[in-house]
Specification:
Two copies of one chain form a homodimer. By secondary structure, the first copy, chain A, is an alpha+beta fold. The first copy, chain A, has one domain: Pnp Oxidase, Chain A. Chain A has five helices and 13 strands. Chain A has a seven-stranded antiparallel sheet with strand order 4-3-7-10-11-6-5. A three-stranded antiparallel sheet of chain A has the order 2-12-13. In chain A, a hairpin with a 4-residue loop joins strand 10 and strand 11 (151-164). Chain A is globular and about 55 Å long. Strand 13 (189-198) of chain A pairs antiparallel with strand 13 of chain B, so a sheet runs across the interface.
């Protein structure tokens, strides 16, 4: 049995019910830990489920920052230092990752509160998460305000990548499943994955084959 | 063994190798079929791995359209008719979904070429994919050009949802894993998922529990 939800029904829904429903509709999401530090070195770590690829040359990625995340340490630190890290989440740390969304005060680092370990790379201001298996550093390049609902798109350039050597294929593909990266759906559901297949580049008239 | 890739190494990479690598780093992605039709009713169906949640009230979602997708039937149809559908992909149709990325001419609908079936709902111009288990209709509300690399962010309002009745929880959460929705990584890798758990709303001082 299938069911239909109309715009009128959406508008009439209780706020938290609608938030859970609409967040689930986006499909499986890229969920990451975003590490920053202010100019004085005070660290912050926050979970984001809105990380997305924007381009490979230059290597650009985007993240959406919500208006209701107050106080917005992540945004302030990115704008102040231009530096942030993106750390993939694996099965061993997804509970701690989720816990970073608790509203800690400005003087309480989520690293300390959740037991995740910061580590630093020379020349990069923001802290990485040691327990993560795939880590990137980004340099802030552009902010785009989405006035419709007060969300902010932060665009970054990928300047550093740290990953397991055996996860990189000969064609550049990174096997993030092998590296243990998890995905999420909705506001709070975490999932491991199982590959169906990789498919060949699509051409008219020929069905894609497994590669 | 882990390895490091620097910005200099990224810049020196062969173009297709870098594209595969950078696309993989974005984590698991929401992969959907986007259905449109021009004013005359000529249909188009295209796979996108950049669908993301933007807000629940109003219910907004975003999609990134790449500059190198020529001819851009999807973009033209959205701007012309303001209507598009988002159709989750399941294990039964991921090969056909991938095949929609082949560069068909303007008079060849991907529906016909891939064997996916269009269906229509009164009041909604764009076609849905019958074989999809979760389908949304969106109304175009805003375009934001990302001048850094020529990509375009299309923002839409969700106006209609069609989904399996047994996938909606009492709290509004939609179990997209139960509905068979798949995820992708990189340019060509498709995956089913297995839930680890849903976690309770995070609060300082209390570890999240399974819900």
């Amino acid at each position: 049995m299938s069911t239909v939800i109309t715009e009128q029904q959406l508008l009439a829904m209780e706020t938290r019910y609608r938030a859970a429903l609409i967040n689930s509709l986006g499909g499986f999401k890229s969920v990451v830990l975003l590490g920053t530090a202010n100019a004085a070195g005070q660290t912050n770590l926050a979970i984001f489920s809105s990380f997305f690829h924007l381009g490979a040359n230059p290597a650009l990625c985007g993240i959406i920052i919500r208006p209701d995340v107050a106080p917005r340490h992540t945004l302030n630190n990115i704008l102040e230092t231009k530096s942030y890290t993106i750390n993939h989440i694996n099965e061993g740390i997804y509970r701690q990752a989720h816990q970073t969304s608790a509203r800690y005060g400005g003087d309480e680092s989520e690293f300390v509160q959740t037991g995740l370990t910061p580590f630093y790379v020379p020349g990069i201001h923001a802290p990485f998460v040691q327990q993560s298996h795939i880590q990137l550093a980004c340099e802030f390049v552009q902010r785009a305000d989405i006035t419709l609902n007060g969300t902010i798109l932060i665009i970054g350039k990928i300047v550093y990548i740290h990953l397991p050597e055996n996860a990189i294929g000969t064609d550049g593909f990174i096997d993030i499943e092998k590296a243990g990266t998890v995905t999420c759906s909705g506001l709070d559901s975490y999932h491991t994955t199982k590959r169906l297949s990789r498919l060949s580049y699509a051409k008219p008239g020929v069905l894609p084959r497994d590669i």
